[in-house]
């Protein structure tokens, strides 16, 4: 199924694919460890300082600098790039909120990582002349109604307790991995491929971190 005709709809049980792709998740940049939603917009994401720590506590390696040449994106791939920006914003905003509620460093670390991820995607949006759906959106607010509904639902689920918040994090990262793998299908643009590959590795680290906390 082409990415422009998919929606990732998150439920308590996981992810159900249906309808229009642009309604996946997202991340806004209000982590105290970084510089806010507009940090480095249009700058080289390789210059971003990632949080201390590593995969075991939710940190991850920096997303590679965008040094590869641009390519050609189909309309579906342009839609997917905007959807990935909203996913990164959703993840950041959700984890930041959970970090404020629960004494778990994993949420702080992953939220800070998501800040750099969004910056990289924003750089690509600018490079390809695609409108940024996360621009000027306050924490917890999203341009796409389905993304807003997903954030509100996951926030409510994660408010039930620390384990519920970790499960919400697992849901987000599982959906993120599926979205990135789908976004990579038939993609030929070298710069977008490199960023997606970096984001995919990061999401796998984040998912593993949530799994470790839930297994304790």
TrEMBL record:
<feature type="signal peptide">
    <location>
        <begin position="1"/>
        <end position="28"/>
    </location>
</feature>
<dbReference type="InterPro" id="IPR009078">
    <property type="entry name" value="Ferritin-like_SF"/>
</dbReference>
<dbReference type="InterPro" id="IPR012347">
    <property type="entry name" value="Ferritin-like"/>
</dbReference>
<dbReference type="InterPro" id="IPR019243">
    <property type="entry name" value="DUF2202"/>
</dbReference>
<protein>
    <recommendedName>
        <fullName>DUF2202 domain-containing protein</fullName>
    </recommendedName>
</protein>
<keyword id="KW-0732">Signal</keyword>
<feature type="domain" description="DUF2202">
    <location>
        <begin position="85"/>
        <end position="214"/>
    </location>
</feature>
<dbReference type="Pfam" id="PF09968">
    <property type="entry name" value="DUF2202"/>
</dbReference>
């Amino acid at each position: 199924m082409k990415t422009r005709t998919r929606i990732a709809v998150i439920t308590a049980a996981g992810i159900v694919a249906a309808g229009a792709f642009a309604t996946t998740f997202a991340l806004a940049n209000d982590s105290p460890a970084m510089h806010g939603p507009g940090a480095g917009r249009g700058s080289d994401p390789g210059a971003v300082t990632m949080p201390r720590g590593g995969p075991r506590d939710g940190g991850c390696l920096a997303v590679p600098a965008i040094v590869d040449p641009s390519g050609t994106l189909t309309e579906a791939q342009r839609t997917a790039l905007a959807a990935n920006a909203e996913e990164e914003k959703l993840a950041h905003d959700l984890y930041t909120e959970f970090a404020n509620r629960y004494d778990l460093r994993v949420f702080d670390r992953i939220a800070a990582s998501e800040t750099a991820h969004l910056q990289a995607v924003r750089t690509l949006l600018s490079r390809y002349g695609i409108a940024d759906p996360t621009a000027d959106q306050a924490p917890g607010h999203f341009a796409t109604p389905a993304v807003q509904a997903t954030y509100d639902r996951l926030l409510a689920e994660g408010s039930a307790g620390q384990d519920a918040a970790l499960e919400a994090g697992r849901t987000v990262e599982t959906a993120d991995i599926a979205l990135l793998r789908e976004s990579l299908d038939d993609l030929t643009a070298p710069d977008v491929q490199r960023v997606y590959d970096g984001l995919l590795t990061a999401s796998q680290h984040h998912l593993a971190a949530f799994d470790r906390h839930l297994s304790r």
